[in-house]
Amino acid sequence: MTLDAQLVATARAMNATGLNQGRSGNVSARCGDGMLITASGCHFDDITPEHLVETDLDGQWRGPLKPSSEASFHAAIYRQRPDAGAVIHVHSPWAMSLACLRHRIPPFHYMVAVAGGTDVPCVPYATFGTEELAQHVAAGLADRDACLMANHGQVALADTPAAALELAQEVEHLARCYGQLLPIGEPVLLDDDQMGEVLGRFSSYRRNAQTTGT
Asked: Are 208 and 214 in contact (CB under 8 A)?
């Protein structure tokens, strides 16, 4: 599948899976020295390859449509994380709710390690589309593959658009489970040693799965 086809399929799935609504959110993929990103204001139910914009990592873009207003934080992520092949941003309900409380997702469950660390952090608030927000998000993803954005939503990165979508879905599920626990009480958290063991097992599992196809 071509890169533009991958992005279109992922963008359509954002709304279809309930991770996103209407015209909010955005998705991009690294393309050469720049990125291919969804256009500003497009409705993801009707997106086509014509709604994707070639954009340099310094903000220059080509074509008749403007890139997403959040292109700056996508670019900041790609500049900082050479391993990132795709970035997705959604306003998923449970992640957004925790972000409005300015809650991180702590290690209440071992699957929190899916985001690459011992928690899913919540980065500070800044106005959408600003360089300040871009710097907050880039800092939050320096050693994580996903983070919440205060009073905003969530962002996740991966090798491909489909993998970034899968991670965003996992973060939303974790946010939902954690959010459902809060009215009952604070859950017992796993400690650093326990999470360290999980992170090590995740790393070896992924290597083995890629090698053996299991």
From this structure: yes
User: Among residues 54, 70, 170, 197, which one is catalytic?
Assistant: 70
Measured CA to CA, the distance from residue 11 to residue 47 in angstroms comes to 7
pLDDT tens for the chain, 214 residues: list them: 999 999 999 999 999 999 998 889 999 999 999 999 999 998 888 899 999 999 999 989 998 999 999 999 999 999 999 999 999 999 999 999 999 999 999 999 999 999 999 999 999 999 999 999 999 999 999 999 999 999 999 999 999 999 999 999 999 999 999 999 999 999 999 999 999 999 999 887 654 444 444 3
Strands in 153-158's sheet, in edge-to-edge order, are 61-62, 52-56, 34-38, 26-31, 86-90, 153-158, 146-149, 122-123
What pTM did the predictor assign? 0.94
What are the Cα distances from residue 169, in Å, to 17, 93, 94, 175, 208? 9, 11, 11, 10, 23
**DSSP type of residue 55:** E
Spatial distance between the Cα atoms of 17 and 165, rounded to a whole number of angstroms = 10
70 is catalytic: yes
Where helices occur in the chain by DSSP H, the ranges are 3-16, 71-80, 93-101, 131-140, 161-181, 192-212
Residue given tokens 């589309």 in the structure block: 129
CA distance 145 to 157: 5
